[in-house]
C-alpha cells in the first residue's frame, strides 16, 4: 500500500514539472510556459515556419504562449504585428532585422472553451467558466504551487472576459522562448552593453519605419544566455508614431504610467507630476525627484495654452519616438539601481559615471534636448571600448596581403561572438508589480461578473 502511494507521488511530481504554468499576466490575459495542446477551431502558422519545424521546437520546449481572453486585444496585437512585419518585408524583403529586435510570432490559434452562456444565470456563469478553464489547462490545485495564494491560469483569465459575451473563447500567439525578464536576473555589464547596442540599433530601425513601442520596461526586455541576445517583447500598444497624439490614443497619453515621457503631461495641468511621482515611490532619490520637478515646470510652462490632445504642436508629434528613448532610460535607471547589472570592470566608479551620464541624457525632460538612439549607441560603443584592451582592439589593424593567406582565413573562421558568464536568477521585490502595471483601455475593465 505504501509502495503504491510512493509511485503516485512520483507521477504527481513529474506532472508538476511538465504541466502548463503561468509566467505572467496583463490586461489582455496571461503568458504561459508552453503552447496549448487542445484542438483549436482556427489556427495558422506565421512566416517561414513549417509544421515540422514547429513540432520539433515544441518537443524541445522552446515555446511560450501569450493567451488572450479579450478578442479585441488579440485582434489589435495581430494587426500591429502585421503592419510592422509588412513594413520590414517591404523595405528589406525579409523580417530578419525584426528578429534582431524581438521575437516574431510562430503560430496563432483560437479555442472555444464554452458556448451558449445565455442559458445560465449571472451567479452561475463565473463558477462554470472557471471550472471549464481549469479542465482546459489541466490545472490541479495541489500541484500548482506551494503558495496557495499564487494566481493560476484560470484565475488570471476569468476576470479578463467581457461580461456580456455568450461564447467563451481564448486566443493564443506562440513565440520562441526569448529568455528571462531583465528585472529577474543579474547579468554582467559587458555582455549587457554588447547586447544593448544591437537592441538599440534594431529599435532605431523600428522608429525609422514609423512605429513606437510605448511599453519599454524591465519586464518587456528578455535576455537569452544561449545567444547573448536582448529581445524587446509585448507590442500590444505599439502604434505608428503619427497616431500617438490622437483622440483614439488619449487614454494612453492620459494614463499615469511610470515610463510615459514628460511630454505626455502637456495637456494635464493639474496632475503633471503623475508619472514622476510613481517613479519616486520606488526610486527614492529626493535630489533626482526635485530636479525633475523643476525640469517639468520649465518644459510644460512652454505649452500653457495647450489643453486638448489635437492641439499638441506638430514639432512634438514628429518626435513621438523619443518617448521610447525616455522609457529605455528609466528602465536602465531601475536596472542599475536594483543591481540587476553587475559591474565587472576594475574601474567601477568610471563605468557608473558614464552610465549615469548616458541615462541622464536619455531621460532629459525636454524631448528636443533628449538623446536620440544614434547618441545612445555612440555612448554605448565608447563604454564597450573600456572593456577591451588597446592591443586586442587593434589586433588586426596592420594585417596585409603579405601575410600567409591560409593563416588569415583560419583567423577569420575563429572570429565568433564570445559570451560571458551564466546569468543568475534574481528575486524581485513585490513592489515591482505595482510599479510595472500597464494602463488598460476601458473595454478591458469589464469584468466577467
Write the layout of secondary structure elements.
Elements (H helix, E strand, L loop, with lengths): L1 H17 L3 E4 L3 E4 L9 E4 L5 H9 L3 E6 L2 H22 L3 H6 L5 E8 L7 H15 L4 H4 L8 H6 L9 E9 L3 E2 L3 E4 H20 L2 E2 L8 E4 L4 E4 L6 E2 L9 H5 L19 H9 L3 H15 L13 H4 L4 H16 L3 E2 L5 H15 L10 H13 L4 H4 L11 H10 L9 E2 L5 H5 L14
Parallel strand pairs: 8-13
Antiparallel strand pairs: 1-2, 2-4, 3-5, 4-6, 5-6, 7-10, 8-14, 9-12, 10-11
What does this entry look like structurally?
The chain is α+β, with helices and mostly antiparallel strands and 449 residues long. It has two domains: 16-177, Phosphorylase Kinase, domain 1 (2-Layer Sandwich), CATH 3.30.200; 181-387 and 423-435, Orthogonal Bundle (Transferase(Phosphotransferase), domain 1), CATH 1.10.510. It has helices spanning 2-18, 51-59, 71-92, 96-101, 122-136, 141-144, 153-158, 189-208, 250-254, 274-282, 286-300, 314-317, 322-337, 348-362, 373-385, 390-393, 405-414, 431-435, and strands at residues 22-25, 29-32, 42-45, 63-68, 107-114, 168-176, 180-181, 185-188, 211-212, 221-224, 229-232, 239-240, 341-342, 424-425. A six-stranded antiparallel sheet has the order 1-2-4-6-5-3. A hairpin with a 4-residue loop joins β10 (221-224) and β11 (229-232). Mean pLDDT is 85; it is low at 1-8, 10-17, 142-147 and 443-449.
